[in-house]
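During the reporting period, we have paired protein sequences with backbone structure tokens. One record among many follows, to show the layout:
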Amino acid sequence: MPPRQADRVWNQTSSAIMSSPSTKPEPTPQSGSDASNPKQWGKRASASEDIRFLQGPGGRGSELARAFRIAGECIKGFRAFHFLGPCVTVFGSARFDEGHKYYDLARQTGSELARAGFTVMTGGGPGVMEAANRGAREAGGKSVGCNIELPFEQQPNDYLDRWVDFRYFFVRKVMLVKYSYAFVALPGGFGTLDEVFETATLIQTGKIQDFPLVLMGRDYWEPMLMFIRATLVAGGTIDPEDADRLIITDDPERATEVVREAALHRFGLTYAKPRRRLWFLGERA
């Protein structure tokens, strides 16, 4: 096993990751941020735009323009995250403040993941997201966020090296899944449950490989697991192995070990040099 330190580099033919040294400058505003006010997300989405998008067919011209906006948003995410390499996405509530047991658990987990050489990716907001990003930063690892533009003001947390605004929820979800080799979910509300079950569905249907899906906070998640086994499995709507894919633990080291073992042995990731950037494509460190 390679030594536990934050300046590891993962490598695979499709991606690479390298954490920064333990002493880091404050994050520079990245895509979607305002250089004069780095603590402010990008422009807020119009509620009427979301309503128009979801209310049914629009004019041919407006639908074509929207398709280009969606494609452009995908490209923005691809370019921003291309060199992150293997990430671990951490889901969880924005409502747990510092001092809450789940905030502390997320912070410890972020640190452990960063020491194992992974970039920690979250929704970039407060609560569990902030805690995971904070833990990664404190361990000298990389910390990134995917924000969703909303009609109301939303603030990034203070522990992001890079963050990107997304107008469309489904594009944001693609980014949270695309660059991750594992998913860790701490307690949360509807949004967290949506992310957990969508990820579980992608794994169940083979749309993504059998990536680890770790639920942290045994007292919070066990009632849901009991329902899944007693109702869904018993009713035949899912298979027993579908329920078995959900790993529950309260131990950040155990969660990280599950992720690391999958990365090394299931997906063949190794520690190696990062991928070279191409200057003529505008790729910068």
Summary: Residues 66 and 196 are 28 Å apart (CA to CA).
